[in-house]
Amino acid sequence: MSNLVIVESPVKAKALQNYLGSSYNVLA
User: What stretches pass through the bilayer (predicted)?
Assistant: First the structure.
């Protein structure tokens, strides 16, 4: 089960995805 993180901007989403790794699903 992956954790879902939602942020306000695609740029921040991409940076967070790289930071958190594949176990997190980051959406904007």
Answer: none
Rounded to two decimals, what is the model's pTM?
0.68
pLDDT digit string, tens, across residues 1-28: 689 999 999 999 999 999 999 899 999 9
Query: Could you state, in order of their start, the residue ranges of all structural domains in the chain?
Result: 1-28
17: exposed, middle or buried (Cβ count in 10 Å: 0-12, 13-18, 19+)? middle
Question: φ, ψ for residue 8 (rounded to 5)?
Answer: -85, -15
**What single letter denotes the amino acid at residue 14?**
K
Strand 24-27 relative to strand 3-6, pairing: parallel
